[in-house]
């Protein structure tokens, strides 16, 4: 991953680190790695979403572990120097700066450490469609609903999950959401 970090310009790496800190502080639900990757690629840098996701996971793990162990900036940089000799100098400088500015703000509570890691819901989109025909059936006229959920996984990466439902399935889905809303009203 160190060779891939070397590809990322300092300003983009700093933005990634800031977003990771915000995610660790529960200020944003996750990091949109695909959007950041597209912006990096637009600037002329060849990097793919998978590599940027790995870098995001590594830096997120680094910051959360440093917060759990209450590391000072110098302790973190010394640990980085001992463990990862191939880390680019600009990345170490960014990590040093971000940790120096934000270390106190990261609150990794005992409850958060012991909680099972699950994704966080960010957004939902849906659309109604009708399948008119296929290569095996000339006349379908089959209505369906496509639902796309935007979810931030525990490391903060935002991904889209899509699925299709028949109209009866969608009605059941909607009914269950209404039941959840009713229960939440009583809380």
From TrEMBL:
PROSITE patterns assigned to the protein according to its UniProt record, in alphabetical order: COMM
Pfam families: COMM_domain
Domain COMM span(s) in chain numbering: 120-187
GO molecular function, a single term: NF-kappaB binding
Protein family: Belongs to the COMM domain-containing protein 6 family.
Function statement: Scaffold protein in the commander complex that is essential for endosomal recycling of transmembrane cargos; the commander complex is composed of the CCC subcomplex and the retriever subcomplex. May modulate activity of cullin-RING E3 ubiquitin ligase (CRL) complexes. Down-regulates activation of NF-kappa-B. Inhibits TNF-induced NFKB1 activation.
The protein's name: COMM domain-containing protein 6
Taxonomic lineage of the native organism: Eukaryota, Metazoa, Chordata, Craniata, Vertebrata
């Amino acid at each position: 991953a160190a060779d891939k970090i070397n590809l990322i310009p300092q300003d983009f790496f700093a933005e990634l680190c800031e977003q990771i800190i915000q995610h660790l502080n529960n200020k944003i639900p996750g990091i949109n790695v695909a959007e950041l990757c597209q912006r990096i690629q637009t600037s002329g840098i060849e990097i793919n979403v998978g590599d940027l996701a790995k870098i995001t996971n590594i830096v997120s793990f680094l910051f959360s572990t440093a917060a759990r162990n209450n590391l000072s900036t110098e302790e973190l940089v010394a640990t980085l120097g001992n463990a990862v000799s191939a880390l680019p100098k600009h990345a170490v400088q960014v990590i040093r700066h971000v940790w120096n500015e934000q270390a106190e703000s990261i609150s990794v509570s005992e409850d958060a450490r012991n909680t099972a890691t699950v994704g966080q819901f960010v957004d939902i989109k849906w659309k109604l469609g009708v399948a008119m025909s296929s290569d095996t059936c000339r006349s379908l006229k089959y209505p369906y609903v496509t639902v796309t959920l935007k979810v931030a996984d525990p490391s903060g990466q935002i991904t889209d999950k899509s699925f299709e439902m028949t109209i009866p399935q969608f009605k059941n889905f909607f009914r269950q959401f209404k039941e959840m809303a009713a229960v939440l009203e009583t809380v």
